[in-house]
Amino acid sequence: MTVTKDDLALFNQFFADYQQRYIRFAVSYIREVTIAEDIVIDSMMYYWENRAKLPPDANIPAYVLTIVKNKCLNYLKHVQVQQDAFAEMTEQAQWELNTRISTLEACEPDELFNQEVQNIVGAVLSKLPKNTRKVFMLSRYENKSHKEIAAELNISTKGVEFHITKVNRLLRQALKDYLLYFLYWFFLG
């Protein structure tokens, strides 16, 4: 299609007459002037490129306004998709954060630490001779005195002290990283 000076003059006049109206229309939905201006320019260019396909009695201002409307709708739908995706990511991040907070709140370091120490103590005790282990268990877990243990096992109180000293030395060595906890658990607890 050949473009004449009259065609350009009519288009320029149309552009001058309607550009601001279309921009105001687009801004009322888009809320961003620069994007609204881009939509209007794109819409008018679309009209210019496709004007030959329109019937001679077409209502050009309504036609271009329909294009502006559809481009605004497409833009807003795109924004909605972005916001939905962002909301989904935010929701996922919030869930993850809540999970980390809940897990950390539920974490009882004393229980974890106590279990770890108990495992080490159990491992040391399992390697002891039967009599040494029995003396230690009676002393620490049943709170029996050296005299009561000696009477129960038919050994001297010095023998009880020997066994307990032996176990304490092995435990101190195995629990050197947990010494403060060890002291509390065995001597104050």
UniProtKB/TrEMBL annotation:
Q: Name one Pfam family in it.
A: Sigma70_r2
- Quote the InterPro entries the UniProt record gives: RNA_pol_sigma-70-like, RNA_pol_sigma-70_dom, RNA_pol_sigma70_bacteroid, RNA_pol_sigma70_r2, RNA_pol_sigma70_r4_t2, RNA_pol_sigma_r2, RNA_pol_sigma_r3/r4-like, WH-like_DNA-bd_sf
Positions of the RNA polymerase sigma factor 70 region 4 type domain: 121-165
Q: What are the boundaries of the signal sequence?
A: none
Task: For this UniProt record, give its keywords in alphabetical order, as a comma-separated list.
Answer: Sigma factor, Transcription, Transcription regulation
Q: List, in alphabetical order, the GO biological process terms annotated in this UniProt record.
A: DNA-templated transcription initiation
In this entry, which stretches build a coiled coil? none
- Record-annotated RNA polymerase sigma-70 region domain positions: 15-77
Enumerate the GO terms in the molecular function aspect: DNA binding; sigma factor activity
The protein's superkingdom reads: Bacteria
Family per similarity comment: Belongs to the sigma-70 factor family. ECF subfamily.
Name of the protein described by the UniProt record: RNA polymerase ECF-type sigma factor
